[in-house]
């Protein structure tokens, strides 16, 4: 088969379309003929040499995919060859075939085509596990989503609104903010022009943060009493000073999580929650995937250039068929 490889870390040109060995499904695993895969910031970090795959994972980038089941390993009973599925991966999505534990496989949601489904697993699992499983967002609370125009952000806005929350977003352009408004965002903050702390004087009960160190102090100031800050990205650095007194006064919490390195059992539990709670909302139209563009898999370098320019809204997809 062919896959996008990274012989040496570097810029987008470091991504090389090459012949590689075919994978095979082992016990409890599913082999998928890939139709499409989503592009994520983690893929860019891996290409740059800053985010190695977990031990035992595929060396190729790609944390999600959609496609057709080609074969199943011993012990797999819930999937059969020919099933149209999508999957949360530890790596390997930028390839014509990928192997994944069967608990991380999802059916393609009703009302979503096979290619578009490749943009769903990583964002859906990230938002569900952090905003709901970890932070416990409830109806009537305020959710602040940093990077509202991203793949994760566009889904978080919709899920927050579906849960009955007031949703605030930050983004760097009026165009992105208008897209967020169309998805249901109530408070629109251009971070280049306005301070989100001042804009949310009533506080945020839950903050989903992709920035990290640069926003830590202001995020803590923005939290309401009993607020929950969940850090899922480090685009603004890794080190910052944390005022524990401010946390104590607000009875607030800061949690940092990652998805890729979790063991399969934990991922399977998140995937099960997504299938139960998120997939029905895609089927009945309450949620809709937001896809900026789709490019052929051999053009992964161009997809990374688009990702790094940050002018897109929603997900970027690579198609393998």
In short:
It contains ten helices and 15 strands. With 321 residues, the protein is an alpha/beta fold.
Question: Your description of this structure?
Answer:
There is one protein chain. The chain has 321 residues and is an alpha/beta fold. It folds into two domains: 178 residues, Alpha-Beta Complex (Quinone Oxidoreductase, Chain A, domain 1), CATH 3.90.180.10; 133 residues, NAD(P)-binding Rossmann-like Domain (Rossmann fold), CATH 3.40.50. The protein is 29% helix and 27% strand. It has ten helices and 15 strands. The strands form three sheets. Strands 3, 4, 5, 6, 7, 14 and 15 form a seven-stranded mixed sheet that branches. α10 links the parallel β14 and β15. α2 packs across α3 and α2 crosses α8.
